[in-house]
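Quick one:
INPUT:
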């Protein structure tokens, strides 16, 4: 799919610009200071439809994959545990806008979450 965003929950917080975007958006990360990046093992790749993100952030769908790739749109992925195992919550930040979506492992949005 040309308008999909290849996403993984590998090392998003270690990427340049993510911490700054979270700070700018007023998101508390609870780190209290510098955090050392730890190597992680890729668990899986989850694709989120760029059209959904574009609608949520008010952007043209064709621009979203490149904006995620060059980090103009900052991303955060949270992997569910316990009763939420198998679910992923994605948050996309662009300027002062934030869009959040919860998906299953196939990237399908879950209504009401």
């Amino acid at each position: 799919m040309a308008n999909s965003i290849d996403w993984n929950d590998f090392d998003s917080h270690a990427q340049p610009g993510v911490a700054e975007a979270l700070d700018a958006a007023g998101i508390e990360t609870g780190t209290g200071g510098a955090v050392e990046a730890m190597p992680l093992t890729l668990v899986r790749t989850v694709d989120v439809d760029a059209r959904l993100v574009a609608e949520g952030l008010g952007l043209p769908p064709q621009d979203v994959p490149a904006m995620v790739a060059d980090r103009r749109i900052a991303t955060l992925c949270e992997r569910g545990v316990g009763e939420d195992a198998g679910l992923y919550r994605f948050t996309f930040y662009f300027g002062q806008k934030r869009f959040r979506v919860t998906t299953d492992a196939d990237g399908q949005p879950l209504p009401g979450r």
